[in-house]
C-alpha cells in the first residue's frame, strides 16, 4: 500500500494507538476491580442483615451500605463526567461563589475518609474568596484534590491554603505523602493515567483529569510541584471574573 | 478447652475487610484484619502463632497479595498456612501465580459461599489452631 509522501507518521501513530488501547484495557481492569470492592461490601452487609445479625452489627452494616452507596455513585459520576468531557458536553453555570464556603463543605464531606486515613487537615483562608465560577464544578475540583491528598498522603498532615488576589484566587493543597516522579507528572492529568500502578492504590485514575478539565473550563490553571517521597503540592489559580 | 481458629483477612478495602471480619466473628471464628501484605506479616509475627487461614486480596498498596503469599511460603513456620484468594481482579484469575491457593474466589462473594469456603478449610483443623 502506498504511503503518503510527506508528513507520514504511521509508526508513531501506531505506537500511540497501541498505548491508548493498553491504557484503556488497564482502565477497564482497574474499574472492574474498584467496582467489585464496594459491591462485595454491599453484598455481605445486605446478606448479613437478611440473616438477622445482632442490632449493633446491623448498625455497622447500615453505615457500610451508606458509605459504599456513595462510593459507587461517585464512580458513576466520574465516568459520566469523562463521557461528557469527551463528548464536549461539560457545561458550566457561572455565578458568584465563595471558595471558602466551597472548601468548608468539601472538607466536611471528606471528614470520615480523612479520619480513617489518619491525616490531619489544616485550612488557612481569609474570610471570603469570591469569584464568578461554577459552584458545583468547583466543589468537584476541591473534593478531588482533597481525596487525592488523603489517598496518597500516607496519613501525614495535609495543608490547604486559600488566597485572594486582585484578579485571581489561589488554592494550594499540600500533602507529605508518596509524591510523584517527574515522568509521571507529565501524564498525571491525562485520563486513565495514574502516577502509581492501579494495582496498589484505589480509584479510577480520573480525578485529576476531571480537575484539569474543569479548571481549564473556568480559564484557570493547575500546577503540580512534587518529589517522590516528599509529597505533592497542587496549585489552582482561577480568574475572579468570568472568562469571556 | 476448644480454641477459635484464627482467620486473617488481608484486604486494603476497609469496608470489605470489616464486613468479613464481623461476619466470620459471628460464625465463631477469631477473625482479624490487615490492610496490606506488610501489615499482615507484622500481625502474624506479633501474634506468635500462624493463622489458621488467610483470606487474601491481590491488589493492595505497599505489599500485594502475591508478594505476601510468597513471603509466607518462604517461611518454614508459615509455609503451610492455607490461603484463599478473594480478589476483585478477574483478569489475574487463571494466570500463573507462584503460590498455591486453596481456592481463588472472584469478588463479589456471597455470604453463603464465604461461610462454605472457610468452614471447608477449617473444619478439620479447628482443634489445633490456637488464638494468637
The main β sheet of chain B shows up as: 5 strands, parallel
* Cα-to-Cα separation, first versus last residue of chain A: 48 Å
Largest sheet of chain A: 5 strands, mixed
Quaternary state of this entry equals heterodimer
- What class would the helix/strand composition of chain B place it in? alpha/beta
Compute the number of strand runs of chain B.
5
User: Strand share of the residues of chain A?
Assistant: 15-25%
* Gross geometry of chain A: globular
**How much is the average pLDDT of chain B?**
88
Pair of chains with the largest interface and how many residues each contributes:
A-B, 32 and 29 residues
Helical coverage of chain B, percent range: 25-40%
Q: Order of strands across the widest beta sheet of chain B?
A: 2-1-3-4-5
N- to C-terminal distance of chain B: 15 Å
- Low-pLDDT regions of chain B: none
Low-confidence segments of chain A: none
Helix content of chain A: 40-55%
Question: H/E series of chain B, N to C?
Answer: EHEHEHEEH
Order of helices and strands of chain A: HHEHEEHEEHHEE
Overview of this protein structure:
The complex is a heterodimer of chains A (244) and B (132). Chain A has helices spanning 10-50, 55-86, 99-117, 135-152, 182-185, 207-217, and strands spanning 95-98, 121-124, 130-133, 158-164, 168-174, 221-227, 231-239. In chain A, helix 1 (10-50) runs antiparallel to helix 2 and helix 3 runs parallel beside helix 4 (135-152). Chain A has six helices and seven strands. Chain A is α+β, with helices and mostly antiparallel strands and 244 residues long. In chain A, the strands form two sheets. Chain A has a five-stranded mixed beta sheet, with helices on one face. Chain A has a two-stranded antiparallel ribbon with strand order 1-3. With 132 residues, chain B is an alpha/beta fold. Chain B is 35% helix and 17% strand. Chain B is built from four helices and five strands; from the N terminus they run E-H-E-H-E-H-E-E-H. Chain B has helices at 14-26, 37-47, 65-74, 111-122; strands at 6-10, 30-34, 53-56, 83-87, 103-106. A five-stranded parallel beta sheet of chain B has the order 2-1-3-4-5. In chain B, strand 1, helix 1 and strand 2 (30-34) form a beta-alpha-beta unit. In chain B, helix 2 (37-47) runs parallel beside helix 3 (65-74). The A-B interface holds A 29, 32-45, 47-48, 51, 53-54, 57, 60-61, 64, 67-68, 116, 198-202 and B 12-16, 18-20, 22-23, 26, 58-62, 64, 88-91, 106-112, 114.
Amino acid at each position: 500500500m502506498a504511503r503518503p509522501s510527506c508528513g507520514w507518521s504511521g509508526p508513531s501513530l501506531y505506537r500511540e494507538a497501541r498505548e491508548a488501547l493498553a491504557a484503556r484495557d488497564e482502565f477497564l481492569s482497574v474499574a472492574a476491580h474498584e467496582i467489585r470492592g464496594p459491591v462485595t461490601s454491599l453484598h455481605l452487609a445486605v446478606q448479613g442483615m437478611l440473616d438477622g445479625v445482632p442490632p449493633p452489627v446491623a448498625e455497622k452494616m447500615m453505615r457500610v451500605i451508606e458509605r459504599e452507596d456513595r462510593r459507587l455513585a461517585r464512580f458513576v459520576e466520574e465516568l459520566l463526567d469523562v463521557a461528557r468531557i469527551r463528548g464536549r458536553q461539560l457545561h458550566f453555570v457561572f455565578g458568584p461563589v465563595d471558595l471558602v464556603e466551597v472548601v468548608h463543605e468539601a472538607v466536611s464531606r471528606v471528614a470520615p475518609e480523612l479520619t480513617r486515613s489518619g491525616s490531619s487537615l489544616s485550612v488557612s483562608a481569609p474570610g471570603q474568596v469570591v469569584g464568578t465560577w461554577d459552584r458545583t464544578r468547583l466543589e468537584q475540583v476541591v473534593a478531588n484534590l482533597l481525596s487525592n491528598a488523603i489517598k496518597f498522603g500516607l496519613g501525614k498532615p495535609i495543608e490547604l491554603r486559600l488566597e485572594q488576589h486582585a484578579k485571581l484566587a489561589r488554592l494550594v493543597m499540600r500533602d507529605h505523602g508518596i509524591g510523584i516522579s517527574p515522568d509521571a507528572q507529565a501524564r498525571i492529568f491525562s485520563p486513565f493515567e495514574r502516577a502509581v500502578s492501579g494495582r496498589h492504590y484505589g480509584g479510577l485514575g480520573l480525578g485529576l483529569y476531571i480537575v484539569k478539565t474543569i479548571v481549564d473550563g473556568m480559564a484557570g490553571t493547575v500546577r503540580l510541584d512534587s518529589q517522590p517521597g516528599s509529597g505533592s503540592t497542587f496549585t489552582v489559580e482561577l480568574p475572579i471574573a468570568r472568562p469571556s | 478447652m476448644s480454641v477459635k481458629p484464627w482467620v486473617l483477612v488481608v484486604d486494603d478495602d476497609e469496608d470489605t475487610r470489616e464486613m468479613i471480619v464481623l461476619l466470620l466473628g459471628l460464625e465463631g471464628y477469631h477473625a482479624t484484619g490487615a490492610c496490606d501484605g506488610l501489615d499482615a506479616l507484622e500481625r502474624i509475627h506479633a501474634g506468635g502463632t500462624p493463622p489458621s487461614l488467610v483470606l487474601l486480596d491481590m491488589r493492595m498498596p505497599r505489599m500485594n497479595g502475591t508478594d505476601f503469599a510468597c513471603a509466607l511460603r518462604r517461611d518454614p513456620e508459615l509455609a503451610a498456612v492455607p490461603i484463599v484468594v478473594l480478589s476483585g481482579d478477574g483478569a489475574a484469575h487463571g494466570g500463573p501465580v507462584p503460590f498455591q491457593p486453596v481456592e481463588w474466589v472472584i469478588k463479589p462473594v456471597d455470604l453463603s459461599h464465604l461461610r462454605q469456603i472457610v468452614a471447608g478449610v477449617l473444619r478439620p483443623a479447628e482443634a489445633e489452631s490456637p488464638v494468637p
